[in-house]
Amino acid sequence: QDGTDAAASAKFASSSPLLDVKASVCENLSNYILRFEEEFQPYLAPFSAQVWQLLMASQSASSAADPLSISAIGFLTSVAKSVHHKLFQDESALTNIVQHVVVPNVKLSEEEVELFDFNYTEYVRRDLEGSDNDTRRRSACELLQALCAKFPERVTALTTAYVGQLMTEYASNPANAWRGKDVAMQLVLALAVRGKTAATGATGINTLVNISEFFTGNIVPELRSAAASPSAELPTPSAVLACDALKFVTTFRSHLPKETLLGLFPDLIKLLGVSNNVVHSYAAICLERILALREGTTRASPPKIAGAELAPVLEQLLTRLFACFDFPDSKENEYAMKCLMRVLGALEPAHVFPIFEAIVPKLCAIIAEVSANPSKPNFNHALFEALASIVADVVRHAKAGGGDPPAVCRRIEALVFPTFQLVLQNDVQEFAPYIFQIMALLLEAQEPVRGGVATSGGADSGAVTSSIPEVYLTLFPVLLSPLLWERRGNVPALVRLLEAYLTRGVLDKASAQLQGVLGVFQKLVANKAHDHEGFYILNAVTASLDLATFQPYVSTILTLLFSRLQTSSTLKFSKYFVVYFSLFSLRFGPEAIVASIEAVQAGVFGNLLQGVLVPTATSHVSGDSECTMCCAALMALLVQRAQMLSEMGAFGGVLGAAVALAERASGDGGSMGAGPSTAPADDEEPGADVEYGVTFATLMHARRDSANAPIERMVTSIGDPRQHVASQIGALQRTHPNLVTSAALMQHITNPNLRERLGEWLVKGGVALQ
Known about the structure:
The protein is mostly helical.
């Protein structure tokens, strides 16, 4: 019988209907005080006394009594947090609760010790992560925190006295009183923390607790004692106390000086080598969360510990982390893998480059092994995140002058492609999206030769020269297979990879595949969930082909888009349509897009302009690059079709939309359509809550470089959109002076703020209106 079964047997062996009924009554009492506080108030004092006495009388350590203890403590916690907390203000009441309710329930039970030894993942989830299942320890700590929030001085003094007593008992008899020290550490944690987040640990501290003194006098010696053990196997008491110390450092990491944290690294690294799964998991968690700290509050803030500061311990750290996967039951330890990912992500590219050929084969060996049964999503995500981090850093170092990028890519490909081929041939669906993202990262390292914005005379004649190696060309037709696109999780990764192919000139060498690429676009754009990804592909195709090659397909493409606009348009679709219209216009010239639209249906351009393009561009297009591009496209349309727009009464609307876009382009800083990757929130953890087959998991280290996006490249030659608007109005004044006057602009720009801003741009641009 393994540890999991043993723990389950112990938990339910002594279960009784009476205990279950009492637990249910306590749950109902908690609901009453939360939902019907006023009606329940007359009964609150007697019920509180009854529950209190029940807890003091029932000190069973059996897990069968857990539901009752947890529910009863939860009710007392609800009372302590409410306006009725004065029920506990008596000194004897506080003493009895701490001594007879909190302390006994914080104590580690035999079942929890069994979990510690035989089911480390469940122990970590309960103790450090806060699983969905409540425990006595957590409930008791929450009660202590609630009481401390209402009676801080008295509860702190009372609990501190118990902590001192327990530590004295441990000092006199360590072998038998280790559970007391464990309780003492848990009490200090509960007492000291006033708030915490996953990103930073403790955010508020009880100033009545001397954290520094406890850390120096108890935590550091415990860590050093465990790290100094000559054996890789710690006895359970020492292992439990080592984990308590690691939990303390993890919780208060943001309040410890950087020098103190760096001083702990040698001991933390040694604890990675302890065979007990909980100990090396806690050590990995502690290291990972320390490395995730930043000097400021945003992701742009510099890390608290820079990659260069890891140099003295890097070799030993990497060796111990990879050794974790050799311990029994830790072959897929997600905490160790996440720590490895964080270490590699913290290093500078120059530090990664010399070691990548030693690390990548180890990661690929793990990928090959777990691909047979990819059962742990978080582990697998961190594994590919670590690989993506290395690939990104090596490519970045090569581009910065550390090597020849194509040659460096060939070295990486030689290491990873055999494993990638194995995974794809075995149709490991969970891993395919990750592989596609890393392949896109490698492919984007190739430098394309391409054109940009259309000149004033019309279309941009620059053509794409392919820079794609033969090995990628062989795979390209396979990526267009309908089966791959049927899998929802594949779509964003495949779109990303397909964009990389297109922007690197694949159609220059595989022009026969254009029909297949447009077929993918047609499939995606017809689906409301994926139509934006269809536009990503269409943008890349349009930006990579010359007009002569692309023209035969334009009518069919526009017909598909018009059909969606007429039958099942959404705001999202309209926004992406406007962005595509602008990209086409800048790539091939306004005359080309107007002629193409009129070729589909004569007279439709005016309706499209005033019914979709102008309203959507004015109010809904977002993102600096998108707004800049749409602004430039509308201004180009004004310059080249001013008379036509004036005759159809659209001149003012188009000008107003362009001005609004120019103003917005320098305001939101976001991106609407740069690609399928999105930046994570400041406190977002890589791979958090990964679910295969349901959602696509972006590799943070494989996110696209914005300079690779067709839209980003298209706007590089435009510059400041406000200056662009001013210069184009100046050009309009020279060709159509009757349309561009001060009075006309007053009429066209109805928003007084925008009118004032436009006046400033014109003055700055040296444009004087009549």
